[in-house]
Predict the 3D structure of the following.
Amino acid sequence: MINYKIIEDYLPENVLKEMNKVYTSSSFPWYYSPHQTLLPKTKESFYFYHTFYENHGFSSNFAHTLDYLMREKLKPISLINVRLNLTVNRHKVYTSNWHQDDHFDKKKRHTTSILYLNSNNGETQLRDDDKIIRIKSVANSLLTFNSAVFHRIKLQTNTDQRLILNLNYYD
């Protein structure tokens, strides 16, 4: 049985509102990726992302939007990767490939957290042997699990976009 935790109402409402305001503004830079996971690649697997932290340093001029989250809530020992993901409505159900967030930590000793920035009918699915655990995309909820857990996303069909903050770190 896998261990995971969901914390609802994770951030103060004003912090979440400000994050969403910044991330959905027309001046926020998004980058296109043709694939969410490495294999197999399909035309439906595209998404947009914004990387805040990678390769041992912050890489975004918007890193300040994470200050409260990092200092007051998450308090990681060390960051590995912090990325904002945006998927758009494809008007059909799409489920990504199963994957792990290893980020070159082949022993998978780190933690993955997903902060849901908006509510929609998308899901994060966790694989527990032959069982699938379905986590709803509820705004201001934080899902946390070990990076060795296989997981995937089911895209939303009821909103234009699905916004999540994907965090990989040592805690």
The first helix runs from residue 13 to 23. The chain has a mean pLDDT of 91.
